[in-house]
């Protein structure tokens, strides 16, 4: 079957294409439109579709809309209840539901030739669940836990996969929502709601959970696989912070308390689910599953032998999950994800043509990995643009900013380059076979979705990647899956003795991750990055801005 998955209703619109159970392509609309998260999650934007992402997915496979067997739309308006009935303050939610019901017509207009009759509404949390249960390796029989802000009428789903079936075990109805509680705190702390929740997680490491007893009055597990989470009086815990205002210890302590009560509740849900299934594998999806601190605690203290997190755990991942769910239901055997590199790429010749059109000086070294390793050893900041772009919010060695981890000042330096708050950490990438001697935690960790304790003897050697609490959110690199990145890491260690490189996303604050060559050149030209490694080519900052350089061999 040829199935196109679509996520559109709330935020992070995305498209994914699954053919005969195999994921061929997946991309978020923000990478094409250059609007962070694609759109704001308000009812008035619910009609907007991932038109460019969907068109690209079809083009990648050489398909036309009329060639599709089904389209999975990751929301079922028939399951929804009014916002008032759900206890939500969302007076325009009826408009959102109207747009959802009209989605087949909107899709027909966006993809000329598409038969609207093949559009299938997939329940939102079942799409999330399928993105974990059908994408994880070795998940033929496994448990899955979904937590986010909201779906049709719930904010949580506990389920189980047995072969080609997903069985729902329990759902927590709204208004109780761990995701919405965390979103409310994000807004209270002066950050952008439904966007900056990861900043709250980072800020929590700077605080103490001294408000935890108070928060437990409002957020707690109910012992039956569900929870209470609504009505937190945030203003009683700390003053509201304006976006342009410095954070205080009260803000950090509130964040730490919220993080702690989230982790406590998640552990109870995980233990309840294991008691129902006794499975060895737990898969996680939904926006809450991007909380890598909570994920690490679930893996460390929970009853499951293995925990796997969907790398596009937020709503974008429901495009993939919806398509996988229909594929499994139609008789296809879903193929596990082999990596998150499911987006666009360009051939060496195409990249060279881009650079020539841009009239920038560049060269083609014998080995771009060795060139980058040498630049990093000299403490350069490198923009790394290689292969297919990542699906999901993490840079995983395809659209990355790289730096030397041995200089503590590189954390501040990178945050300045990206225009980020200085309390936010950057992450290390490390060869999978070397991770165990430096980091304590879940390995392999190819998607940067768990935090790890940094071994004490390494903290002074790689200070740029050690967070204030002594942890790091690592990415392990498999030589077979990522040979170019592995060679760069090997060459860097040969020069420095350090098997770790700083890896953060190739973008600046408020902008989506770089996706195409034009994005890469714009980012490189507007920020103090020393070297752009784009495919096999190297663009050096000094040459880039040397106006009298007219005799470069590449021109």
UniProtKB/TrEMBL annotation:
Domain called Carbamoyltransferase C-terminal: residue spans: 373-541
Key words of the record: Transferase
Question: What protein does this entry describe?
Answer: Carbamoyltransferase
Q: Which PANTHER family match?
A: NODULATION PROTEIN U
What GO MF annotations does this protein's record show? transferase activity
Please report which protein family the annotation says this sequence is part of.
Belongs to the NodU/CmcH family.
Carbamoyltransferase domain mapped to chain residues: 2-324
What organism is recorded for this protein?
Streptomyces ficellus
What CDD domains does this protein's entry cite? ASKHA_NBD_TobZ_N (cd24098)
What Pfam families does the record point to? Answer: Carbam_trans_C, Carbam_trans_N
Query: Could you tell me which SUPFAM superfamilies the record lists for this protein?
Result: Actin-like ATPase domain, YrdC/RibB
| Entries under Gene3D superfamilies matching the protein | 3.30.420.40, Carbamoyltransferase, C-terminal domain (3.90.870.20)
């Amino acid at each position: 079957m040829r199935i196109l998955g679509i996520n559109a209703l709330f935020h992070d619109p995305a498209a994914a294409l699954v053919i005969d159970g195999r994921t061929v392509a997946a991309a978020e609309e923000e990478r094409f439109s250059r609007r962070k998260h694609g759109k704001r999650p308000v009812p008035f934007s619910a009609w907007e579709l991932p038109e460019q992402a969907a068109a690209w997915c079809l083009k990648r496979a050489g398909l036309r809309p009329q060639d599709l067997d089904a389209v999975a739309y990751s929301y079922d308006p028939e399951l929804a209840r009014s916002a008032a009935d759900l206890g939500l303050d969302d007076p325009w939610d009826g408009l959102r539901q109207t747009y959802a019901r009209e989605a087949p017509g909107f899709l027909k207009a966006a993809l000329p030739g598409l038969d609207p009759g093949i559009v299938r509404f997939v329940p939102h949390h079942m799409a999330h669940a399928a993105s974990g249960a059908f994408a994880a390796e070795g998940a033929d029989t496994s448990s899955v836990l979904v937590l986010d802000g909201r779906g049709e009428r719930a904010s949580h789903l506990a389920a189980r996969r047995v072969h080609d079936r997903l069985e729902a075990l329990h759902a927590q109805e709204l208004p109780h929502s761990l995701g919405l509680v965390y979103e409310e705190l994000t807004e209270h702390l002066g950050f952008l709601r439904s966007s900056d929740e990861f900043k709250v997680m980072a800020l929590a490491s700077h605080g103490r959970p001294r408000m935890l007893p108070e928060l437990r009055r409002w957020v707690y597990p109910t012992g039956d696989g569900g929870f209470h989470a609504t009505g937190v009086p945030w203003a009683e815990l700390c003053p509201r912070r304006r976006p342009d205002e410095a954070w205080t210890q009260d803000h950090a302590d509130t964040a730490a308390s919220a993080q702690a009560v989230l982790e406590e509740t998640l552990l109870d849900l995980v233990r309840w689910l294991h008691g129902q299934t006794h499975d060895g594998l737990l898969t996680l999806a939904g926006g809450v599953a991007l909380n890598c601190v909570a994920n690490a605690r679930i893996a460390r203290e929970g009853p499951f032998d293995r925990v796997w997190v969907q790398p596009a755990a937020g709503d974008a991942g429901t495009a993939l999950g919806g398509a996988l769910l229909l594929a499994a239901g139609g008789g296809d055997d879903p193929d596990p994800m082999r990596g998150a590199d499911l987006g666009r790429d360009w051939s060496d010749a195409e990249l060279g043509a881009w650079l020539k059109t841009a009239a920038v000086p560049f060269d083609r070294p014998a080995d771009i990995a060795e060139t980058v390793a040498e630049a990093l050893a000299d403490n350069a900041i490198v923009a790394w643009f290689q292969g297919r772009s990542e699906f999901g919010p993490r840079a995983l060695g395809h659209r990355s900013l790289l730096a030397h981890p041995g200089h503590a000042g590189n954390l501040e330096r990178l945050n300045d380059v990206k225009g980020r708050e200085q309390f936010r950490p950057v992450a290390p990438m490390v060869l999978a076979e070397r991770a165990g001697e430096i980091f304590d935690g879940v390995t392999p960790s190819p998607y940067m979705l768990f935090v790890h304790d940094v071994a004490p003897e390494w903290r002074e050697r790689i200070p740029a990647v050690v967070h204030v609490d002594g942890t790091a959110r690592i990415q392990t690199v498999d030589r077979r899956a990522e040979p170019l990145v592995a060679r760069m890491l090997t060459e860097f260690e040969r020069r420095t003795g350090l098997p770790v490189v700083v890896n953060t996303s190739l973008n600046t604050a408020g902008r989506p991750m770089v996706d195409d060559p034009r994005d890469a050149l714009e980012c490189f030209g507007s920020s103090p990055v020393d070297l752009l490694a784009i495919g096999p080519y190297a663009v050096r900052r000094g040459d880039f801005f040397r106006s009298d350089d007219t005799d470069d061999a590449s021109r």
